[in-house]
Amino acid sequence: MSAKIRNKKIAANYRIKDPVSNFKLRVKIVQQKPLLAELLGNEGDTRDSNFLEEEDRIFSWQEKIFSPFEVNFYGDENNCLTECQKSYYRSIKEANIEGSQLYTYTRNDSYYMDNELLTRPCKTKLSAKNETALPALQNRKPFPERYNKMVVDDRPTETRIRTNHYLYMERSRMYVMVDLSRRDKMSIDPDGDSETMLCVITHDESRRILSVNPDFTNDCCYTVANSSGVEFNYWIVHASEKQSPLELQQQHRESQREIEERLMRKGAEISHGLRLTAPDVCKIFLKFDILSVHDFLFDGLCVSYYIDLPEHWSTDQNNRLFGRTQRCNLKNHSAHFGYAAEISLDFELPDVSDPKEILPSWPRLLFAVISLDNWSRYRTEGYAAVPLPALPGSYELTVPTWRATGSIINSLRRFFTGGTYELDDITYCGVPSGHIGKVLDKSQLKVTPSGYIKLGMNVIHQTHTSVKHDDRLNYFERLSTDKFMTNIENIFEQFKAARERMIQVRNLNV
Fold this sequence. Notes:
Blueprint: E1 4-5, E2 12-15, E3 24-31, H1 35-40, E4 54-60, H2 68-74, H3 83-95, E5 102-105, H4 116-119, H5 125-133, H6 158-163, E6 171-178, E7 196-204, E8 209-213, E9 220-225, E10 231-238, H7 245-273, E11 281-294, E12 301-308, E13 313-314, E14 322-324, E15 334-348, E16 364-372, E17 378-387, E18 393-404, H8 408-416, E19 447-463, H9 470-480, H10 488-509
Parallel strand pairs: 1-9
Antiparallel strand pairs: 2-8, 3-4, 3-10, 5-6, 6-7, 7-8, 9-10, 11-15, 11-19, 12-14, 12-16, 13-15, 16-17, 18-19
C-alpha cells in the first residue's frame, strides 16, 4: 500500500454540534516493507512477523480497548484496587477479552502524555534568574501553614467551583495507543514500544470544540517506528455515521432537557446565594481599601485593622473582622498599600417608633500602624478609631492616629532599640469591650499625634423593607450623629466653634 507520508503532525480543532458520544474514529496501521524487498521487486509478504503487521479498528468516544499487557495485568484480581480497575477485571473475565495491539486510554485511566513532567523539576528562566539575583529566603513557613494559601483543585466539585475564583474548563481526553513491541513480550514486561501514542482526542465541553492531534490524514499517512527500527504507516479517519432525522430529533429533545436541568440547578444556586434577610435585620456590606499612610517617622510600615462589633451586631465571617496589610517602606513620607477587604454585618433593627429610645452603639474600625525595620526594631507608630458610615454610599476618609508616650527613657528606647508603650486591648482606641457606664475616662493616658491613614470605603445596606421609609431614614440619620463623639477632627472643630461663640458673647457683653 503506497501513500504520501506527512512528516509534520499538526493538531486541528473542530466545532461540533452533535453530542460527542456519536463521534467515531478509525485508525489503521500497517508495517512498512523493507527497502531491499521493494528494490528486488518481491511482491510477496516480506514483513517481519515478530511485530505488528497490520491492524484496523474503529473507536467510539471514550471506548476502552485493552492492550495485551492490560488484559494480563487486570486479569489478576489482586492487582485491582480501585473501583475502575475492579470493573476492568469483571469486563475481562465476562467477555473473555484477549487484547488488541491498537488500544485506548480513557479519562478513567491514569495516563500522562509526557512522563518527563512528572519526573523532572520544571524551572522557568525567571526563576533561574531570581536565584542568582536574590538571596535565598530563610525560615519560610511550609505551604499548609501560610495564611494566604490557595489550593486549586484539578477537578473541583460544585461547591468548590463557587468558592474558588479561577476559570475551570471541563475537558476530557482519549488516547489511541499501539503496542509495537515483539509479540512474545506483549503481556510479559512493558517497555518503551508497548505505549506508542498515535492520536489524542480532546473534547472541550464548554466551548463544544473537538481537538484531534494529529489531524485526520485524508489522502496521506503518518509514520512511526519502534526501537528495533521497524517502521509503520498509520491513517486516522473520521468514521462517524450520519444520523437519521428521528435520532436527531430525539437528541435535540435530550439536549433541551439537559439545558433546562442546568438552568434549574443554576437558579437554585443563585436563590440559595441571595437569601433574603429577616424582617428585623439590616445586612450591611462593607468594602474598604487601606490606600496609604503618611507622615510617619520609621520605615517598614504595616497596618492592622479590627472591626469592633457592639451589642445588636453579628456576622458569620468572624475571620474577616481583623487583618493586616503587607509591609511597605516610606517614599516622600508616604507608604502606599492598596489593601482591600470586605465583610458583611448583620444589625438587629429595634423598634424606632419611640423617638426617646436610646440608640445602640455603631461599629468602629480600629487601626494600629506598626513598623519593623531592617534591624528588627519593632515600634507601634499609631492607633486610630473611625466609626463606620451609618448611611450607604462611597466615602474617602482621612484618619489621624496617635500613640502613647512615656518618659524620656521610653523615647530613647523607642529610637535606639525599638519597643514602645502598647495597648493591651485595641478596643481601647474606641470604647473598651468591658466598659460599663456612660462616662469613659482616658485622662491618664498620655498621647502624642502621629501620622494619618487614607481609606476608601463603600457601604451597601440590604433590608427586608425599603430603607427610604421616613422612620428608618431618620433612625439612620440619628445614628450618624454618634460618630462625632469618636472622631478627633470633629471634636476639635466643635471645640473651636464653641470657643468662637464664647468670644462673640463676651464681645457683646462688653
